[in-house]
Amino acid sequence: MTTLADQLRLLLPPVSYSGNAPYLSATIEAEANAMNLADAQASRVYSAIFPDSGEGLADWERVLALPDPCVAGIARTVGQRVQAVVSKLQGRAGQSKGFFIALAKAMGYDITITTFQPARAGLARAGDPINGGDWSFTWRVNAPAVTVTHARAGATGAGDPLTIWGNRALECRLSQMKPAESILLFGYGGN
C-alpha cells in the first residue's frame, strides 16, 4: 500500500521535479503528515456529531445540562451517560404512552404504563375501583423491581462501577417529562 506522501510524489510533473530530491521530499512528507492529521481530526469531529458514539460525551452533557439534578452524585457508567444523552435528545416532544415507553427504552429500562379511568354507569361492575377525582390524570409506570446494569467489555470506561442498581434515573427523567397536569406513580415488581 502506498503512503499519502508517495501519492503526492506521483502528482509531480515527471520531467521537471524529482520526488526524491531531499528538500522537496521533506516538504512532501510534511504536507502528507499535515493532511493525515487533518483527516484524523475530521474523523474525531465526525464521530462527536453522533452522541451514541461516546465521543465528545462531556460536551453533549454540558449542552444538555446533564446529569439531571435528581441523579447528580450517583455513579454511572459511560454507557449510562451515553443513554442519558440519547434519551434527552429523543425526549424533545411527545406525551403518549408509546413516547414514554420508547424514552424509557432509550435509557435501558423496559416499562409498561397503566392509566386509570373513572367508574362510569353502565360500564363499571361491583368491586371495580371508583377512580374518582384526580385518578383521571394519574398514570403508573410499571418497571422491574430493581434494574441492574452490569459492566460490559467495550461499553464500560476505566473507573466505571462494575454493577449499578436502581431506577432513580428513570424516575427523574419521566418526572421531568410528564405532562404538567398529570400525576405520575411508579410501581416496581409484579404489578
Description:
The chain has helices at residues 4-10, 22-49, 57-63, 78-90, 97-106, 168-177; strands at 112-115, 138-143, 148-150, 163-165, 183-188. It is α+β, with helices and mostly antiparallel strands. It folds into 2 domains: 4-49; 68-188, no CATH class. The protein has a 3-stranded mixed beta sheet, covered by helices on one side. It has a two-stranded antiparallel ribbon with strand order 3-4. Helix 1 (4-10) crosses helix 2 (22-49). The radius of gyration is 28 Å and the shape is elongated. The relative contact order is 0.12. The model has no long low-confidence stretch (mean pLDDT 83).
What's the domain count? Answer: 2
Give the mean pLDDT: 83
User: Which term fits the overall shape?
Assistant: elongated
Number of strands: 5
- String of helices and strands: HHHHHEEEEHE
Main β-sheet, spatial strand arrangement:
1-2-5
As a percent range, the share of strand residues is 5-15%
* Low-pLDDT runs: none
Structural class: alpha+beta
State the helical fraction.
25-40%
Q: How is the biggest beta sheet arranged?
A: 3 strands, mixed
Distance between the termini: 62 Å
Helix/strand layout:
Elements: H1 4-10, H2 22-49, H3 57-63, H4 78-90, H5 97-106, E1 112-115, E2 138-143, E3 148-150, E4 163-165, H6 168-177, E5 183-188
Parallel strand pairs: 2-5
Antiparallel strand pairs: 1-2, 3-4
Give a short summary of the structure.
This protein is an alpha+beta fold and 191 residues long. It contains 6 helices and 5 strands. Helix content is 39%, strand content 12%.
